[in-house]
Amino acid sequence: MDKYQVIKGPLRTEKSVADGEKTNAYHFEVDVKANKIQIKKAIEDIFSVKVESVRTLVKKGKKRRVRFIMGKTKEWKKAIVALKEGNAIDFGY
């Protein structure tokens, strides 16, 4: 899997921004099939930083109804990447 297919993009929420400032950890939306080793390698290659640890979780899809039709939102995977001391990623926010 290509490194740009593994990392879909950064998550920009209040919690993720505060986490980046406080504990030097960044949140990313990643491919559901990607494992921690692939995520670590992709972050190190794309942003030229050293990764200390990677935590992942799968957000399950929710049931939604549009008029009379029941549907479901997609499930997606979130990765929380902690960087080593002295490394940082600048997203511009």
Q: Gyration radius, to the nearest Å? A: 15 Å
Distance between the termini: 29 Å
Strand percentage, roughly?
35-45%
Q: What is the number of helices?
A: 3
Helicity range: 25-40%
Mean pLDDT: 94
Strand order of the largest sheet: 1-2-6-3
Keywords:
single chain, alpha+beta, 3 helices
Description:
The longest helix is centred in the middle third of the chain and has 12 residues, at 36-47. The mean pLDDT is 94. The chain contains three helices and six strands, in the order H-E-H-E-H-E-E-E-E. Helices cover 28% and strands 38% of the residues. A hairpin with a 2-residue loop joins strand 4 (63-66) and strand 5. The chain is of the alpha+beta class. The protein starts with a helix and ends in a 10-residue tail after the last strand. A four-stranded antiparallel sheet has the order 1-2-6-3. Strands 4-5 form a two-stranded antiparallel sheet.
Brief overview, please?
This protein has 93 residues and is α+β, with helices and mostly antiparallel strands. It is built from three helices and six strands. The chain has a four-stranded antiparallel sheet. Strands 4-5 form a two-stranded antiparallel sheet.
Detail the topology: elements first, then pairings.
Blueprint lengths: L2 H4 E4 L3 H10 L1 E6 L5 H12 L3 E9 L3 E4 L2 E4 L3 E8 L10
Antiparallel strand pairs: 1-2, 2-6, 3-6, 4-5
